[in-house]
Automatic annotation (TrEMBL):
The lineage of its organism: Bacteria, Bacillati, Actinomycetota, Actinomycetes, Kitasatosporales. This is 3'-5' exonuclease. It comes from the Bacteria. SUPFAM superfamilies: Ribonuclease H-like. The keyword Nuclease applies. Keywords: Exonuclease, Hydrolase, Nuclease. GO terms for molecular function: 3'-5' exonuclease activity; nucleic acid binding. Residues 7-188 form the Exonuclease domain. GO terms for cellular component: cytosol. It comes from Streptomyces mesophilus. NCBIfam families: PRK07942.1 (NF005927). InterPro entries: Ribonucl_H (IPR013520), RNaseH-like_sf (IPR012337), RNaseH_sf (IPR036397).
Length: 241
């Protein structure tokens, strides 16, 4: 039995924007999945403390009015999410997030913004791990497949039903199931342990970043820099709320 048949934690955030260093959490979800079946979940709705742009509302459907009236304080949501994630990692349970660098870097930014312990601090100085990112794994395993690589498109490729895209709980569940489907298709992925797979993804991401940076420079952008860190990027945000 491979890691994909054991307990996995699907993780997703819906936010105010697309820059993980500046966007704020609107909704978050952690869903426990075993063998593709959900067995537990936690969901959060936050008052982000800043206006939610109309384009973000159009994506996830959470209005400013609802966030303000029903959402919990942003610092409380970020703290509870981080505490729960750290608990899973301490137990050695893999956390699955599609395009993990976005969600984890955004959460890290929120923790710093509110003066809360970082993910590393909560783990005694260890890196957040193991993380499984179906986006990175699929892009490596099927490098030359044409078409989009967003969650909806990749779910379609692997036969995963995603009925409510951009709902944090639905996306978290889909990410966990997608990780399992990729492992089923590629036995070499399934036979890696979570720790080894985490290390492989670091290397795969760095290799992709170097290739993409070289491509951009060859196209005329001599100063192009593509960040090579995964799954958590260094932060340069202002710590103030």
């Amino acid at each position: 039995m491979g890691w994909h048949q054991e307990l996995l934690i699907g993780f997703d955030l819906e936010t105010t924007g697309t820059d993980p260093r500046e966007a704020r959490i609107v909704t978050g979800a952690l869903i426990e999945v075993r063998g593709g079946k959900p067995i537990g979940r936690r969901e959060w709705l936050a008052d982000p403390g800043v206006p939610i742009p109309a384009e973000a509302v159009a994506v996830h459907g959470i209005s400013n009015e609802r966030a303000a009236s029903e959402g919990r304080p942003a610092a409380e949501v970020a703290d509870q999410l981080a505490r729960a994630l750290a608990g899973y990692w301490d137990a050695g349970v893999p956390v699955v997030a599609y395009n993990a660098t976005f969600d984890l870097t955004l959460l890290a930014a929120e923790l710093r913004r509110h003066g809360l312990p970082s993910l590393r601090e909560r783990l005694g100085g260890r890196e957040p791990a193991p993380v499984i990112d179906p986006y990175i794994i699929d892009r490596t395993a099927d490098r030359y497949r044409k078409g989009k690589r967003n969650l909806e498109a990749v779910c379609t490729e692997y036969g995963i039903v995603l009925d409510d895209a951009h709902n944090a709980t639905a996306d978290a569940l889909a990410a966990a199931r997608l990780a399992g489907a990729i492992a089923d298709r590629y036995p070499k992925i399934a036979t890696l342990g979570p720790a080894a797979l985490h290390r492989q993804q670091i290397a795969w991401y760095a290799e992709w970043a170097a290739d993409f940076q070289e491509f951009l420079r060859a196209k005329g952008d001599a100063s192009a820099v593509v960040e090579a860190s995964w799954p958590l990027r260094e932060l340069d945000i202002n710590s103030g709320v």
